[in-house]
Amino acid sequence: MNLPDDPQVEPAGAFAGTPDGLDRLWTPHRMVYIGGQDKPADDAPGDGCPFCRIPTLDDEQGLVVRRGDVAFVVMNLYPYNSGHLLVCPYRHVADYTDLTDDEVAEVAALTRTAMRVVRDVMAPDGFNLGMNQGQVAGAGIQAHLHQHVVPRWGGDANFLPIVARTRALPALLGDTRAALAAAWPATEGTTDPC
Ligand SMILES: [Zn+2]
């Protein structure tokens, strides 16, 4: 494995996602390991919340695919599958009923466009969409709402998660982010008319 002499290691807390106890086996030959668990210490907004911090980073750094007016799309650092996206309001709100009408509309529009873009780029056979509301329901970062968009392929749920608590991810997050961002239509998926 060839690594640069001074590889830049970003803290996992700078990215989106919910640690879930599974290890990830990143399978491309250019393998990068990102270590460390990344749960906010509390439910407060700001730098302690990855979904508040990510929009302050540039797209490559934060793995941001698309920025809307009131919501954004980001790669999940702990993907269940390649192309696993999260759609989040910029506002630090926990519950779906806390969203404004504009946020509901844009989260929905970004989710719809995310499906189209992932279909174009990665040709999945299906999707899982959803939000976990509350820790008991599986929300790892419960204080900041995020909608999962998980592409599915036939046979993707192989033996690895069961026997090894590991998922095999055949594409790197940065590469996938770049491909999805490039394929995202210029205007579609946001409420911004221009
Ligand atoms: Zn937040």
Automatic annotation (TrEMBL):
<dbReference type="InterPro" id="IPR052908">
    <property type="entry name" value="AP-4-A_phosphorylase"/>
</dbReference>
<keyword id="KW-0547">Nucleotide-binding</keyword>
<dbReference type="InterPro" id="IPR039383">
    <property type="entry name" value="FHIT"/>
</dbReference>
<feature type="short sequence motif" description="Histidine triad motif">
    <location>
        <begin position="144"/>
        <end position="148"/>
    </location>
</feature>
<dbReference type="InterPro" id="IPR036265">
    <property type="entry name" value="HIT-like_sf"/>
</dbReference>
<protein>
    <submittedName>
        <fullName>HIT domain-containing protein</fullName>
    </submittedName>
</protein>
<feature type="region of interest" description="Disordered">
    <location>
        <begin position="1"/>
        <end position="21"/>
    </location>
</feature>
<dbReference type="InterPro" id="IPR011146">
    <property type="entry name" value="HIT-like"/>
</dbReference>
<feature type="domain" description="HIT">
    <location>
        <begin position="50"/>
        <end position="159"/>
    </location>
</feature>
<dbReference type="Pfam" id="PF01230">
    <property type="entry name" value="HIT"/>
</dbReference>
